[in-house]
Design a protein that fits this description.
Layout (H helix, E strand, L loop, with lengths): L1 H11 L12 H15 L17 E2 L8 H4 L1 H11 L19 H14 L3 E5 L2 H11 L6 E5 L4 H8 L5 E5 L4 H14 L1 H5 L4 E6 L1 E2 L4 E2 L2 H11 L5 E6 L14 H4 L8 E5 L9 E5 L1 H10 L1 H4 L6 H15 L4 H19 L2 H8 L20 E4 L6 H10 L2 E2 L1 E3 L10 E5 L6 H22 L10 H10 L3
Parallel strand pairs: 1-12, 3-4, 3-5, 5-8, 8-9
Antiparallel strand pairs: 2-10, 6-7, 9-10, 11-14, 13-14
Helix pairs in contact: 4-14, 5-14, 6-7, 6-12, 8-10, 15-18, 17-19
Length: 465
């Protein structure tokens, strides 16, 4: 299965533009644009992971609590539908017209209560939610200050914002954040006077880097630099939902900061194994979204089955049914770090740059660990490591530009509640096997070989497709 997937991927990376001289200009121009991606082996394809066929171990999916794999969310969903046998399959229109109904308002209030918020608004996806937030909430004269690694959907939302002042700060850097706030105050007199606001955009967990936001420290700096109280925070909890906080309520709830955060975004398609997203805020925020967010105004409201799926997931969180699963993720990530850093090859591999795992140095001192762990090797080895993992029965994928900056490709490992310690140990063994092979190659100990065995196997497939 892994070989077939890799063969298909290789086939899709072959340039098509040069062979389309006689094709319609419309198709040729599109293929030439795609060739730019293919040239860097960055053409996205419709992959079918081997783990879904039972032929590999899942270290890539977003089914973090394993509610999808175990069928728990499906059971809860069908139970929820059975309690409402006469439900409508359609919503009937926009939330502002015929698409509002009692059930969605009831579920939204339940979600708001669970997270300690005043209101909740269900939307179609996390991408849609960020688009709604940043196109509707910042007013003319406001500024947006954001971590440089926020989601692409945040950037797309900011592109439609009425705010003209948008400044990034270095990822997780408190000093850079302070300097950026000062810069805004120096350049924006209305904000300095306190008659306009600064919206700070951060994420609770950064899935490409595997680190957790120091929200408390950012709040303290904002109060110090802007004593007029006109700095508000928007926290994207896409990767914190279900994984961090009491009963999976997220990082903001874990820190007890519900009253200090103006907006929160929780997605339902990752740990909760459903679909959709929820925006939390007060009544003013909700009214602004309903009136100014085009993605809310000009789209059909979420249907009953969508909302029922969301309620099924939240029901599992609220009853505490997922707490053990949440704890299991923490234990598995700790097990990974402990085993990896104790391997004989680890120290040499990290010293010479063949392996790097950010956060592996201080994992024992951290209160919470992210479920997503970035695995780095030399940039020219990144795909070789992917080939090695895939052909060894590990489902994991490379993360490349434009998802991450150029020259910063990596592999993202995702840990799930249903993974076992034995599977984690297998993962460690396979990574270290690759590291040792590359050390031997670099030191000339592999009979002059320059390409690892897994890569040779994949390159052989190239001749057959």
């Amino acid at each position: 299965m892994a070989e077939a997937m890799l063969a298909s991927w290789i086939k899709n990376q072959r340039l098509k533009g040069p062979g389309m001289k006689d094709a319609p200009v419309f198709d040729r121009n599109l293929e030439e644009a795609l060739d730019v991606r293919r040239a860097d082996h960055g053409m996205y394809t419709r992959n079918k992971s081997a783990w879904k066929m039972g032929q590999a171990i899942d270290f890539c999916s977003n089914d973090l609590l394993s509610l999808g794999r175990t069928g728990q969310i499906r059971t809860a969903f069908f139970e929820e539908l059975s309690r409402h046998p006469d439900f409508s399959l359609y919503s009937g229109g926009s939330r502002l017209m015929d698409g509002n109904y009692d059930y969605i308002e009831q579920v939204e209030q339940e979600i708001a209560d669970f997270h300690g918020a005043e209101t909740a608004l269900i939307v179609g996806s996390g991408y849609e939610a960020n688009g709604a937030i940043y196109s509707a909430i910042p007013r003319p004269g406001d500024a947006i200050v954001y971590d440089e690694l926020v989601h692409a959907s945040t950037h797309d939302g900011m592109a439609h914002s009425l705010s003209l002042c948008k400044l990034p700060f270095r990822h997780q850097d408190i000093d850079s954040f302070r300097d950026t706030l000062v810069s805004v105050l120096d350049s924006q007199p209305l904000i300095k006077q306190g008659s306009r606001s600064i919206i700070v955009s951060v994420e609770s967990v950064y899935s490409m880097d595997g680190d957790i936001c120091p929200i408390q420290e950012f709040l303290e700096v904002s109060k110090e630099v802007c004593p007029k109280g006109n700095v508000v925070f928007c926290v994207d909890e896409a990767h914190g939902t279900g994984v961090l906080g009491p009963k999976g309520a997220g990082l903001v709830s874990a820190l007890g900061l519900q009253k200090e955060i103006a907006l929160r975004l929780h997605t339902c398609g990752k740990a909760m194994a459903s679909t959709g997203a929820v925006i939390l805020g007060n009544a003013t925020v909700r009214n602004a979204l309903m009136n100014f967010a085009r993605s809310v105004i000009y789209t059909t409201a979420p249907s009953f089955p969508v909302v029922a799926g969301i309620r099924a997931g939240y029901g599992l969180l609220q009853t505490g049914a997922t707490q053990k699963l949440q704890d299991s993720i923490q234990n598995l990530v700790k097990h990974f770090f402990k085993n990896m850093t104790s391997q004989p090859v680890w120290h040499k591999a990290t010293e010479i740059g063949i392996l790097s795992i950010p956060g592996s140095e201080d994992w024992e001192s951290r209160e919470w660990l992210a479920h997503c762990v970035p695995l780095w090797t030399r940039q020219r080895y990144n795909y070789w490591l992917v080939f090695h993992l895939q052909l060894s029965g590990i489902s994991a994928f490379p993360i490349d530009y434009p998802t991450v900056p150029k020259g910063q490709s990596r592999i993202r490992l995702m840990f799930h509640a249903a993974n076992t310690e034995a599977e984690v140990e297998t993962l460690v063994s396979i990574i270290c096997e690759f590291a040792q092979e590359m050390i031997d190659i670099e030191e000339g100990g592999e009979a002059g070989l320059k390409v690892p065995k897994a890569a040779q196997q994949v390159y052989a497939l190239m001749a057959d497709v």
